[in-house]
Amino acid sequence: MTVRNFSYIGRFAPSPTGPLHTGSLVAAMASYLDAKAHHGQWLVRIEDVDVGRNVAGADQHILASLQRCGMHWDGEVTWQTQRYALYEAAVRQLGDLIYPCGCSRKEIADSQLSLSGRQAQALIYPGTCRHGLAPGKVGRALRLKVPQEPHCILSFDDRWSGHYSQDLTDEVGDYVVRRADGYWAYQLAVVVDDGAQGITDIVRGADLLDSTPRQLYLQQVLGLPQPSYLHVPVVVNELGDKLSKQTGARAFDDGGDPHHLLHEAMLPAARFLGLDLHADNIDAFWRAAIPAWAQLLQTLPRRP
């Protein structure tokens, strides 16, 4: 897609692993409201790069649910599986910053047992294959080198929660851009797609907040502009787990009565985002929701 000359271009980028649930509705609604409040463009991208998890027909169910909720996208919908050439070009551009890795997750976890204070953290790659594969290892994944000295510390101001900083060297290490199973990694695909589509503002769930520094680093080394970020709170279940398909989240849209969709899904999602709305139909909902979101933005840590 050609980059377009709009001051605000946002997007909603669901994975087609099943129908949208309440948590994904919150993310979709926030991104849509932010684009409309800024008189911008709102794109939809189907992030189907993790082919093994895709569910047949889920992409069409997602698009139908968005339309039933009155969220109409600008331009054409894009699918990541149609954009592999862009990801391959990005890896070529990264050149010597990319190297093959033959380590399994178990080997990485075992290597951390000897690293004081890191046992409770997410897996941090120790750089085993950084200077070449060990004898007998096969390079299955591709990793991106993170600077070691000085440390690679990335910071940004999130429009919802304020300042966020992460030391990629100590907290992440060299990270995967193409997985061992051959699928392109989320971090690379999302950065390349956002750059190619001219995305200026990213509104998504707070579960992706700690991924953002990895994306900032990729933007830097690929020479791409840095979008503005806003990470909204995520919906959790009664156990405190993020609401997701893996935790049994159900679809919010059964294709039935729009009145039920409005009162049982859309209004609760708006309330979760901090909007106190009353509406009798979906058109009235958006007429009230867009200015309410604009007003809410004035209370956030960093206004656009």
From TrEMBL:
EC number: 6.1.1.-
Gene Ontology terms for molecular function: ATP binding; glutamate-tRNA ligase activity; zinc ion binding
Cofactor: Zn(2+)
One GO-annotated biological process of the protein: tRNA modification
GO CC term (a single one): cytosol
Binding site for L-glutamate: R11, F12, A13, P14, S15, E47, Y186, R204
Cofactor: binding details: Binds 1 zinc ion per subunit.
Residues spanned by motif 'HIGH' region: 14-24
Domain Glutamyl/glutaminyl-tRNA synthetase class Ib catalytic, residue spans: 11-276
Residues involved in ATP binding: K245
Positions annotated to bind Zn(2+): C101, C103, Y125, C129
Keywords tagged on the record: Aminoacyl-tRNA synthetase, ATP-binding, Ligase, Metal-binding, Nucleotide-binding, Protein biosynthesis, Zinc
Record motif 'KMSKS' region, residues: 242-246
InterPro entries for this protein: Glu-Q_tRNA(Asp)_Synthase, Glu/Gln-tRNA-synth, Glu/Gln-tRNA-synth_Ib_cat-dom, GluQ/Sye, Rossmann-like_a/b/a_fold
Function according to Swiss-Prot or TrEMBL: Catalyzes the tRNA-independent activation of glutamate in presence of ATP and the subsequent transfer of glutamate onto a tRNA(Asp). Glutamate is transferred on the 2-amino-5-(4,5-dihydroxy-2-cyclopenten-1-yl) moiety of the queuosine in the wobble position of the QUC anticodon.
NCBIfam families in the record: PRK05710.1-2, PRK05710.1-3, queuosine_YadB
Recorded family membership: Belongs to the class-I aminoacyl-tRNA synthetase family. GluQ subfamily.
Protein name according to UniProt: Glutamyl-Q tRNA(Asp) synthetase
Organism per entry: Duganella guangzhouensis
